[in-house]
Amino acid sequence: MMGALDWLQRKLIVATSRTKRSTDFIALLVTLDHLYGPKPGVATKPVVIVLDNGPIHVSKATSAALAARAHWLTVEWLPKYAPELNDIEVVWHDLKAFNLAHKTFTDADTLDAAIHTAVADLNTERNRDPLGEQRISA
Fold first, then answer.
1. How many whole angstroms separate alpha carbon 34 and alpha carbon 46?
2. Which long-range contacts (CB under 8 A, 24 or more apart) does 46-50 make?
3. What CA–CA distance (Å, rounded) separates 39 from 103?
4. What is the pTM of this model?
5. Per residue in 23-76, pLDDT tens?
6. Which residues contact 21 (CB under 8 A, 6 or more apart)?
7. Contact 32/13 with Cβ under 8 angstroms?
8. Of these four, 8, 67, 75, 137, which has the most CB atoms within 10 Å of its CB?
9. Is 4 exposed, middle or buried (0-12, 13-18, 19+ CB in 10 A)?
10. For the packed helices 22-36 and 60-68, what is the interaxial angle rounded to 10 degrees?
């Protein structure tokens, strides 16, 4: 499981795979291309991605993929061995501790479906408008 956290929309974007390789991370970048990348006739907004120094983030293949997106995607690198600075780690903890904890999955496909359902639930919870359902007291 790997993903990106969109702070503006308060949305978690997750990709699941059975491996944790550079090609899996590049597939996540392709998803980000579709969501945030340049589109014909639409003004391109700059996007910043914050990455730790994990092996899949610093590989040659990933470096080439990031360089190909440099015109719209800026990379900010976290210091090595500083997971407390990585905001998505809190989200991963919530997902694992509260949404997927104490459950048994019969196979990888069931786990994959559960992850995507839990992410959808988290996104709904994070995007709830606390002022949207106010009642006027009489």
1. 14
2. 46/72, 46/74, 47/72, 47/73, 47/74, 48/73, 48/74, 48/75, 48/76, 49/4, 49/73, 49/74, 49/75, 49/76, 50/75, 50/76, 50/77, 50/78, 50/86, 50/87
3. 41
4. 0.76
5. 999 999 999 999 999 999 988 888 999 998 888 899 999 999 999 999 999 999
6. 56
7. yes
8. 75
9. buried
10. 10
- The amino acid sitting at 127 is N
> Which residue has 């998505």 as its token pair?
88
